Amino acid sequence: MDQQFDLAQEKQNNLQLLLKLAPYAHQVMGEENVFTLTDKEKYIYVVQGTELKLPIKQGDAIKPGSIADNCIKAGERVVKRIPKDVLGTPYIGRGIPVFDDDGSLIGTIATGQTIDIQEKVSNMAVELNTYLENISSTSINLMSASEELAATAQTLSDNTTGIEKDIKETDLVIALIKEVSDQTHLLGLNAAIEAARAGDQGRGFNVVAGEIRKLAARTNNSVKEIGEKLKHIQEIVLGFATQVHEVSVVSQQQAANTQELTATMDRIRAMSEELAQIADELIK
């Protein structure tokens, strides 16, 4: 009987020692947290935190399903995350069983730590990651469109170069026609001179010579008009070629910038995922 009394007294003494240390332990763990000490039936020490208040007080019986209750039943450390909808503030509950020298469980030490900031950081990281995924998807589509535009602009630029070459070759043809026209006009002029020398016998030939000169004149005028129109077309084509080249350069630069933006978004997304992991680690 005396041995049982001594054993009970020793357990009580151990709890009393923990009671003396409890205020210091609370300060070490942070005054913003809730700190509790229990025996196997009730709370023998309760200090509410500056940022978290739990509906318990000293002398209350241990509630089923609480951290202390789970700790006593499991006989080991317990960690439980309590969502915001329970008390209005999310918090993490931690508890450890307390044993006496012979290994018998005599009580628990439990804390409640607010995780409102950590959850906000975690939620922000998740939300940021979602936004980044949407931006990254848009950037990829934009990059694809830019590359397609750059390819189209390059094709137009190549085609414009071909048109410029064709116009220059047309200039050679026009020059040849003008040369033939000049020679024809000269031939008609010489024919008219010879017809004049022949007198009456060259009248018919003189008519032919006149028609040759008229044809040469019309041809020369047409060549001049065609040359002016082709020159105008060439100027338009050259202006178009310049604009196409500028579009091509801008498109290529846009594609490169979009690719760099996508890479940056990937790095930020990786950082946001790491931030979310860190936030989760803080509340374990």
Automatic annotation (TrEMBL):
Q: Which UniProt keywords apply?
A: Transducer
Looking at the record, the residues that make up the Methyl-accepting transducer domain are 163-284
- GO:BP terms for this protein? signal transduction
Q: What domain of life?
A: Bacteria
Pfam family example for this protein?
MCPsignal
InterPro entries of this UniProt entry?
A: MCPsignal_dom (IPR004089), Sensor-like_sf (IPR029151)
Q: Does the keyword DNA repair apply?
A: no
What GO cellular component entries does it have? membrane
What PANTHER family does its record include? LYSOZYME-LIKE PROTEIN-RELATED, METHYL-ACCEPTING CHEMOTAXIS PROTEIN MCPB
Q: What is this protein called?
A: Methyl-accepting chemotaxis protein (MCP) signalling domain-containing protein
Recorded source organism is Desulfoscipio geothermicus DSM 3669
